[in-house]
Write a structure and sequence with these properties.
Layout (H helix, E strand, L loop, with lengths): L1 H22 L1 H32 L2 H15 L1 H6 L2 H5 L1 H4 L5 H5 L2 H6 L5 H32 L3 H28 L12 H24 L11 H32 L6 H4 L6 H20 L2 H4 L2 H27 L8 H22 L12 H5 L5
Length: 380
């Protein structure tokens, strides 16, 4: 897995350099925003799922806890990879140009919030909070492996309760900054919850893929059963439904209100070639995995569930592209080499870091009080 990640990163970087030369820095920064938001969404979603598991317990969380923690441990280095977005503010965000603000009353009204200095300050605060929560979750887990201290269970619970509230607030504001402000004239009150559900879906699909790969060999081939898979498949189905529900709710609210400031968001996504991407989001991102995950047998089948999870990850990339790209190219769909290269490059770096962290610890939390229940899950 680490070698695949390193190879993908190298291949993606080479393609990105070629694309940069051919298409210019503006297209690079715009494509990079999509790739980075998707990959870092897996990390943030993994952190949120960890906190949910520490609050609720359950065998489902034990078998994917190590992959989730390994994803969270990549956060410090992946934070550094936000630098291109910080450097490319003027190529990404219209509101960062003083001349644009000077002639636009709406941007003037939003200027106290949407300005380069405050934007960067907010990102520093967000990343600091996420890294602190991630460090506490993973360092306490390592301590639990060493000492088996039962007091850590309560500490996990307290941190997770507060952490989920903090996660919800910071992610909502961060996604408004990163993606919604690409079009500063448009707004949606559903944006934060929609991205949180998407991050949970991405993280779950990634964790399911990794656990199924690991279950092909020792030691997890003696641990992970179809019963665990059934639970994971049901959670994957639940996050898929939640994301679809929030997506449709946003559309329904905007459609029924029919406000001139809001409806262009959907109008430009049903014209100029974007209608095909929109159709894929409806069919490929929701209907196809929804129909497949309805089957109990599919959720208990290792190969089929892995393929569905991988497909969902691919569809998530397309969904992020659908959210952002039409704002940059309202004249019509413009796919370029950078739209494919940047997700491969950033995703490859993440996968290599993830595998490096995963192999440093036991694949199961050996001294977690819930481990015996998880191992005997098939009995129940």
């Amino acid at each position: 897995m680490q070698r695949v990640g390193m190879g993908a990163a190298l291949f993606g970087v080479v393609l990105t350099i070629i694309g940069f030369v051919l298409s210019g820095q503006e297209r690079f920064f715009q494509a990079y925003l999509v790739a980075y938001t998707f990959v870092f969404g897996i990390i943030l979603g993994s952190m949120a799922l960890l906190m949910i598991q520490h609050l609720t317990g359950g065998a489902w969380g034990i078998v994917i806890r190590r992959p989730l923690e390994a994803a969270v441990r990549t956060m410090p280095i992946m934070t550094v990879l936000f630098l291109p977005i910080a450097l490319g503010i003027h190529d990404i965000y219209h509101w960062s140009h003083a001349d644009a603000v000077a002639t636009d009353p709406i941007l003037q009204f939003k200027e106290p919030y949407l300005n380069t200095t405050f934007f960067l300050v907010r990102q520093v605060v967000f990343f600091a909070i996420w890294n602190i929560i991630g460090w506490m979750l993973t360092s306490w887990s390592a301590e639990q492996d060493r000492s088996g201290d039962l007091g850590l269970v309560k500490k996990f619970s307290i941190l997770s309760g507060a952490g989920l509230v903090i996660y919800s607030l910071t992610v909502s504001f961060a996604m408004i900054d990163w993606t919604m402000s690409v079009n500063p004239h448009w707004f949606s009150t559903m944006w934060g919850p929609l991205y949180m559900a998407g991050q949970g879906l991405s993280a779950f699909a990634f964790a399911v893929t990794v656990v199924i790969l690991l279950s092909q060999t020792a030691p997890l081939n003696r641990v992970v059963t179809s019963h665990h898979l059934h639970d994971l498949g049901k959670f994957l189905f639940a996050f898929l439904m939640l994301h679809a529900y929030l997506s449709f709710s946003q559309f329904l609210i905007i459609w029924s209100a029919n406000v001139v400031e809001e409806i262009p968001h959907y109008l430009i996504r049903w014209d100029g070639g974007y209608q095909y991407v929109s159709a894929f989001i409806i069919i490929g991102h929701f209907i196809v995995p929804y129909v497949l995950l309805l089957s109990r047998d599919t959720k208990r089948d290792f190969k089929r569930l892995r393929l569905i999870a991988i497909w969902i990850l691919f569809a998530r990339v397309v969904d992020y592209y659908w959210h952002v790209a039409p704002e940059f190219h309202q004249e019509g769909l413009r796919l370029g080499i950078l739209d494919f290269a940047t997700p491969v490059a950033v995703g490859g770096v993440f996968l290599a870091l993830f595998a490096s962290n995963l192999k440093k610890y036991a694949l199961l939390p050996l001294r977690d009080p819930g481990l015996p229940k998880a191992l005997a899950h098939h009995v129940h």
